[in-house]
Fold:
Amino acid sequence: MSKFWSDIVHTLTPYVPGEQPKTQNLIKLNTNENPYPPSPKALAAIAEASNESLRLYPDPSSDILKQSIANYYNLDTAQVFVGNGSDEVLAHTFQALLKHDKPLLFPDISYSFYPVYCGLYGIDYKTVPLNANFEIDVADYSQPNGGIIFPNPNAPTGIGLALNNIENLLQQYPSSVVVVDEAYIDFGGESAIAFIDKYPNLLVVQTISKSRSLAGLRVGFALGHPDLIQALVRVKDSFNSYPLDKLATLGASASLNDKAYFSKTCQRVIQTRDQLTLKLKALGFEVLPSQANFIFAQHPKHQGKDLAQSLRDKQIIVRHFQAPRIENFLRITVGTDVECAQLIKALESIIA
Amino acid sequence: MSKFWSDIVHTLTPYVPGEQPKTQNLIKLNTNENPYPPSPKALAAIAEASNESLRLYPDPSSDILKQSIANYYNLDTAQVFVGNGSDEVLAHTFQALLKHDKPLLFPDISYSFYPVYCGLYGIDYKTVPLNANFEIDVADYSQPNGGIIFPNPNAPTGIGLALNNIENLLQQYPSSVVVVDEAYIDFGGESAIAFIDKYPNLLVVQTISKSRSLAGLRVGFALGHPDLIQALVRVKDSFNSYPLDKLATLGASASLNDKAYFSKTCQRVIQTRDQLTLKLKALGFEVLPSQANFIFAQHPKHQGKDLAQSLRDKQIIVRHFQAPRIENFLRITVGTDVECAQLIKALESIIA
Structure:
């Protein structure tokens, strides 16, 4: 608290990201990073660009990266916005497209940054409870709104939403922007990108942090009608002309261009996830059906908080949210097969 | 214009950065980049970090970089904030510290992003004219205000403000945050950092883009009392937990640690600037006294706009602002000695 702070600062409840431990030798299954390295082509592109030219400003609109994204998804570059991680893309989205007279709607159990953005930009919002199976029921969104946002698959549940449900929302609220936050879509979900040419009220947000193993670079993007993209560009150019540095732009672009590597690593994560799910169920866990690179699970006889602490004592970190309805759950990132085997071994000894 | 836009988007007048040409073979003297490469130690640090670990999120608080900055300026890390370029640091500063009931004050001729930030955050502001010599006269700031911000040296004039003037403002308005934007301070100005322990209302903003030849990395920072830094952190953590990627954090840190290289390249820029000033004056230009890595100059017999176009025709780009009081000036970045000789040669032929 300080007399120097703008009023808004006093009211903020900032987001708290998962721990990035500074010690080594931990099995890190807490922030949904990919266990496999980035594409070698991405690392080569970064190495090639790490030279004298860093004295120059980067391309303010990151055209090379936009073109790679447009090519990958068969869109026009005017339908692509890029930012410094999908968190920045989401922040601009909240400010540029989701502040209206009627409340913004999002699930009660969802990405916990959403209410933080609302606080930062003074956006009225209303949370819509997931159903008893922790699913989004689009019928529950049939109420006056100034916009709708949800992750698909949802976080931290991992549960995906079928495309016909998303299309229902797009049709039912043609004057509301519907933002589908697809941070985890590449691990088995159905992307709404197919609807972009059809619905001018759809914005899809993605990231290279998870499925492209480049959380360390900070690149996210949004796809939608050029009118929506233009709103994001106007806010971006009123905030920071050059949000993406040269290395991030070129590394991300090379990563997008390497489809073969991407497919291979995504498939490995999916296979490990499905095996891990079976093993957790064998230990008595209730596991929500995940289409993401993490698993959300609870044990009928053990508190989530206690399990997280016991795992931590064994050098394994997972994420636990002290929040209504989900306080007994653990969110476990899908690691390598070896890491998941160590997790299961540790849980066996804890539960025994 | 779109029904989907939040109200604020319709009202924005985004900042337009200087051109980043995609063609080669231009002499680029338009965006105040350093003509010398980054420290070899910075490039080595980036190369070393460009590996498998990019799959992981970076340290959200960039502690290694904060420590390098704190060491360099003999401050505590609690007095240091880092962001994705000084433009992001300034954006957070406007939102976190400069929105109050009374208007924010800044010079009429100054960094043209300031009014854009005010538009983005709904900040009431009032511009204070530079005096007839294009200098900041602190007596003109003796009026009710909710904060004061100016670059030192000022941009695009290049004129520096002596520290006793800044101290006067800090003393006269102990309840206003005074932000000194020192993007160009390392080329001969007097930094206000010396006042940080004395005045809790002082915030100094700097960048590694210019004096450390790393515009391509996007790293800026702010220095001030921990109360001010905490406001910036609260906004940052409500906007984007990880604004700095791993390569930028480590490259910037290594750059800060290489004092010898930094001093050498700054001195070379200063020497070239002083020689270029003499040569421009010999051609009949009026040259404002610069403490920055650029020169602001006008010619009594030639329009600034025409000169800029004629230089462009000769593959040399400089910056021209179509703005009151300065429309006849050119802002010329100090290049290498060879580039400046080519500029002078081109101007000789244009003016002849």
